[in-house]
Amino acid sequence: MRLLFVPNEEYPMFTSIDPATGAPGQSYAELTGAEIEIKLQRAHDTFREWRLTDLATRTALLERIAEQFDANTQRLAETATREMGKTLKSAIAEVQKCAQAFRHYAQEGAAMLEPRSFPGATATWHPMGPVLAVMPWNFPYWQVVRFMAPTILAGNVGLLKHASSVQGCGAALEEMVIAAGGPAGLFQNLAIKSDKVDALIADDRIVAVTLTGSEGAGMKVAEAAGRALKKVVLELGGSDPFIVMPSADLDAAAKAAVTARVQNTGQSCICAKRMIVHADVYDAFFEKFSAGMQAVVAGDPMDAASDMGPLSSEEQRATVLGQLKLFEQAGAKLLFGGEALPGKGAYMSAGILVDVPTDHEVANEELFGPIAMLFKAADIDEAIGIANAVPFGLGSSVWTQDADERARFERDIEAGMIAVNKMLASAPEAPFGGVKRSGHGRELGPYGLHEFMNLKTVLG
């Protein structure tokens, strides 16, 4: 069924709010129904041409897009910092990582798309069509590029429904493609609200959808995709465990744990959120970790001396503060931090929760802020049990020098990713995604490329 979008209401403006100051920033007009229809048809028409381009044309464009990210690093980073509050240094690193991803797919794409031969048959990869991406604000470039780079390489085209608060970042992403010489319909930012997503998914010009976001958003998108019988990839919440065993390098583990918890002001799906520490080293780890968390400087995200900026909005800070009240009502104890800092901006101090009851529903909360939960485990079995007790299964980090323990963790931790003796991080070459209520499907690496391609079998 093809749907024709027509204007039938007054369309509001998106206005970004600087979470460091509360001051309004640039405004962007929401697309009218007629404008959505134009972009949809443009995507459809562009795909008919782009699918026929050769691999050399696609990879050359990816290289030029990477060059645009390089040339505009400072401007792109400042836009992200103003719109969602991450530190400028982390925003710069995010932009550089995006350039790395485009180059990765440009350089490795040919190998990823090699046909596979079988007795009497060959399997070949082919593009599917326009893919809709529904993306969040926390990594406003990287989350999108994880879908965007392989989409272009595959011969597909992309449509982005970005978070309302980061429309400047969404517009900039489209600008990078155009500046690199890409056709106008290859990647388009749709400045729309969430209430338009169901109709987009139902439109027969959209062949698939990918979402990074909350469980609730994931369920709505999956339901809409199911009704339309369309492929969907979901990267949802996480409450990642960070397990420390007696053989671990405690200095390295504690330092990594602080970074893993407060990066992006704790607003990352793969932030380590639950520190699970063996009883034999609990006190020693706690001393190092708590000192590190208390030393975290929350301040102006444009200042290189700041370890973290504000939360993304006043609303997000209020959500985290409300969650902390629920934890305390359930019997958990906030040792320090977790306070709204005075003055302008959505700032909050880093903190640690202990005595969190693992059998209470509050333990299933994903804290999207700079607050760590600390648990004590008697042995590896209890550590794995605590790690797996939540409904999420995105990532994990384990710290041990024991080969047998490592093997147990790799086998028994219920997660899509596991980092050993290091902080979990995403990388262009490594498949990214989770299990359980953290979603399904994969981004990045060859598997992320293949998610939205038709594996066509040729017999004879």
> Shape from CA axes?
globular
Which secondary-structure class do the elements indicate?
alpha/beta
Mean pLDDT: 96
What is the percentage of strand-forming residues?
Answer: 15-25%
Spatial extent as radius of gyration: 22 Å
Largest sheet: 7 strands, mixed
Strand order of the largest sheet: 12-13-14-11-10-16-17
Q: For this structure, what is the CATH homologous superfamily of the largest domain?
A: Aldehyde Dehydrogenase, Chain A, domain 1
At a glance:
By secondary structure, the chain is α/β, with parallel strands linked by helices. The protein has helices spanning 33-50, 55-71, 73-84, 88-112, 142-154, 167-179, 197-202, 215-227, 250-262, 282-294, 314-329, 380-387, 403-412, 445-450; strands at residues 13-17, 24-29, 116-118, 121-127, 130-134, 157-161, 187-189, 208-212, 231-235, 240-244, 272-278, 333-336, 351-354, 371-377, 392-393, 397-399, 419-420, 435-436, 439-440, 453-459.
